[in-house]
């Protein structure tokens, strides 16, 4: 597992993407798969920055990468107040509420979950992507 903590500012999301690329570089992963994971990571980080730290509040975003033989799990966590979980329900009109990021992650990942951080304040978005 590799963990990276970045300031909750959009300009630092590139560091998370670079770490991801470095992690996958030694493997024979299709460029399309790498692009999908990078986009999902960008959306998850952007959601944390936008929703958890609204109004310019200071904070951090933690990114965890768990690389297995055939898959990658990425977890993006923050210490913010979260969002309306009803936006995750099937049939919810999340796009009207700014929920496009979750819809993108769900479409790109093989599995995705959103929920409170275990034992700590904040929320996590966790997604899995097969690498082959």
Topology:
Elements: E1 2-7, H1 13-24, H2 31-52, E2 60-67, E3 71-78, H3 100-108, E4 111-116, E5 123-130
Antiparallel strand pairs: 1-2, 2-3, 3-5, 4-5
Summarize this entry quickly.
The protein has 132 residues and is α+β, with helices and mostly antiparallel strands. It has helices at 13-24, 31-52, 100-108, and strands at 2-7, 60-67, 71-78, 111-116, 123-130.
Features:
alpha+beta; Heat Shock Protein 90; 33% helix; 5 strands
Protein model, in words:
The protein is α+β, with helices and mostly antiparallel strands and 132 residues long. The chain has 3 helices and 5 strands. It has helices spanning 13-24, 31-52, 100-108, and strands at 2-7, 60-67, 71-78, 111-116, 123-130. The protein has a 5-stranded antiparallel sheet, with helices on one face. α2 (31-52) packs antiparallel against α3. It is globular. It starts with a strand and ends with a strand. The mean pLDDT is 88.
